[in-house]
Each structure stands twice: as structure tokens, then as C-alpha cells.
Amino acid sequence: MVSGRRRGEYAALRAAFEDRFWWPEEQTYYFGLNGAKEPIRSVVSNAGHALWSGIAAQQHAAAVVRRLLAPDMFSGWGIRTLSARHPAFNPFVYQLGSIWPHDNGLLALGFARYGFRDEAARIAAGIFEAAQHYHSMPELFAGLDRHPRDIPVQYLHANVPQGWAAGSVFMLLRALLGLRADAPNKRLLVDPVLPAWLPRLRLSRLPVGDATVDLEFVLDGSQTKTDVMDITGDLRVVEEPLTPDPT
């Protein structure tokens, strides 16, 4: 648990962050500050990292989620690095509008952390559907709009496979299942919300510290049930809601 002093420092940091980085006109966070400490007015996916880290104010979370899922940011396959309305937008360039699976994994975790589970699942659906067109998860793909019968356009010089792109699968699963390992206390925290397109999911031999666990998650109506199939070692599976605050 975080001490009272640390929570006070965190609250001060969050307030300073909100004061310097909140962009009211676009309802998102500025890209950064330039050398003169003036805000950089570019709509980018980085704003969602404030949700992933937990520093974003609760009252601004919904606006950031909406902004990142707007058509100029969400292509249908995933969230672009840069808004399609930006003068420098180029869907075939690394940081100028392409789609990175690992970046989308972080965004989905941030959405889920602030309670936007359906929106996190929307990101997961886009990335998983794009991945079906490749033998391995690519480092990135083009940020072109998705249309019926389209396939995602792979970036010409992308690494395939690529380590952090492959890792995005596990980030997306964590976002859907609310998985958090607390190995020192021999606990696995869960808060599953499966979407309709993924009504059942099983994890086998999931390691948590020195223990392993087999879990099955089943969508039952509007609720997702957790079934602990097997545990090897000393471990408790605890249902605990996700929260944006530090613990």
C-alpha cells in the first residue's frame, strides 16, 4: 500500500499535470511542452498513456477516451499515433499516423483502468482482427481507414515478428480480464469483462510468483464469471475492481 505522504505527493503531481497539460478545446492532453514551456497542440495517442499510468484526473478520463476513439484517431483497426486531421499526418510513417499494437495495448489498459471496459474491448477487437491477416503480430501497420472487405496494410519495413508487438496480446488480455499479479502477497487480482465476441476464454499454467493457475472466464448474460480450474502452489485468486488510483 502507498503511504499517506506518497499519496499526497501523487495528488500534487496529478494536479500539476492537469494544470499544464489539459487541452480544453480538444478535450485531451497536449502532446507535450516545447522549449519555451508552451503546449504542443497535436492530438496524439500519447494522451491515453496518462490513463494507463493513472495520472489522469477521473473527470477528464471519459473525454480522453472519446477523443481517442473519434474517427480521426481510431481507424477501425486501432488507434493512430497522430490525428488524421493533423497537417503532418501520414498513415505510412512511424509516428505520424501509423498504428502500433503495443501502443494500443497500453491504451486498452488505460481505458480499462478508468472503467471504460467496452471501449477497451473495441481496441482489442480491432487489433485482434488485424492480427488475423498476419502470420505474426507486426511491429506496426498503416493508419488507413478501415472499410468493408479491407485488410490492414502492413508497414513496408516493419519487423515481423516483433517482441513488443507480440506482448500487446497479453496487454489486451489483461485489459479484458483485469488481471494484476500481486506475487509478494501470493494473490492474483481479477476483474473480468468479456465482450460478446469473446464469450469464453481459458488461461493455462499462468505463473504468479512460484505458483501457477488455470482459469476459465465465461460470459453469462451481462456478467463474466471466473472459474479457478487448478492451482499449483500457494496462491489466491481475488476479484477486485480496477482503479485509476495507486495502491
Notes on the protein architecture:
- By secondary structure, the protein is of the alpha+beta class.
- The chain has two domains: 4-177, Glycosyltransferase (Alpha/alpha barrel), CATH 1.50.10.10; 179-247, Maltose phosphorylase, domain 3.
- It has helices spanning 4-21, 49-53, 58-68, 101-113, 117-131, 163-177; strands spanning 22-23, 28-29, 32-33, 39-40, 180-182, 187-190, 200-208, 211-220, 223-232, 236-239.
- It has a three-stranded mixed β-sheet, with no helix packed on it. The protein has a three-stranded antiparallel β-sheet with strand order 7-8-9, with no helix packed on it.
- A hairpin with a 4-residue loop joins β1 (22-23) and β2.
- α4 runs parallel beside α6 and α5 packs antiparallel against α6.
- The longest helix has 18 residues, at 4-21.
- The chain is globular and about 55 Å long.
- The termini are close together.
- The model has no long low-confidence stretch (mean pLDDT 93).
